[in-house]
Amino acid sequence: MTDASVTTATTSPHHASVVAKEATHFGRLARDWWDPAGSSAMLHRLNPVRLRYLRAAVDRHWDLDDRSFVPMAGKSALDMGCGAGLLAEPLARLGAAVTAVDAAAESIAVARDHAARCGLTIDYRAGGVETVAGETFDLVASLEVVEHVADARAFVAGLADAVAPGGLLVMSTPNRTWLSRAALVEAAEALGQIPRGTHDWDKFLTPDELSAMIAEAGLRVVDVTGLTLGTKGFALGSSTALDYFVTAVR
Description:
It is a single chain. By secondary structure, the protein is α/β, with parallel strands linked by helices. It has one domain: Rossmann fold. It contains 8 helices and 8 strands; from the N terminus they run αααβαβαββαβααβββ. Strands 3-2-1-4-5-8-6-7 form an 8-stranded mixed beta sheet. β2 (97-102), α5 and β3 (123-126) form a beta-alpha-beta unit. α6 (152-161) packs across α8 (207-216). It is globular and about 45 Å long. 43% of the residues are buried. Mean pLDDT is 88; it is low at 1-12. Pfam families: Methyltransf_23.
């Protein structure tokens, strides 16, 4: 990745869902997004668990062969809030035709460069959920994103509109609890495990709040699974006190 891949990024268009200071914050982190010891180190540790949940969700929904290396061949996927491609690239390797969108143009520049060097074809776009208005996808994924947008309800509605008939929506986000405040804001940011200013605890959503927004948007929630953090790292579990995944269908 060259410096030019970051500095020549064009500014993303104005979209109502995008909070400018959030895009600026994450754009500053774009340069070392793929460094597992850099500012996105926690995402690197989280990614295997996210992929495990997502793979199980798509296998279950479409009754796919869980032994296949490309189970999503012939299906389209949207990664909304893709950063520099930590989820988009594995989705492409699973065989999906991937469109990936992020509000930070700098992150999109890094994502394009990294995908090209890995020989992956991904349709990367800078902007918000408005970027895919009128398009639909078999899978819509938006992980750790809804807490960063201007209007969560409108954002969820935009995601729901992008889910094709028979399609699947997968989201994850921190819960608004004392534990998430202590672990993700007061401790992780104070200790430098997450860059300062990454989270606004008041914008976190409870599982009931997010599920209600998804139902309002016309989808049916079929699973809520907790994401926990223990001495051995991140894991899926029944407790949603820290963070959680939601799967919904059209």
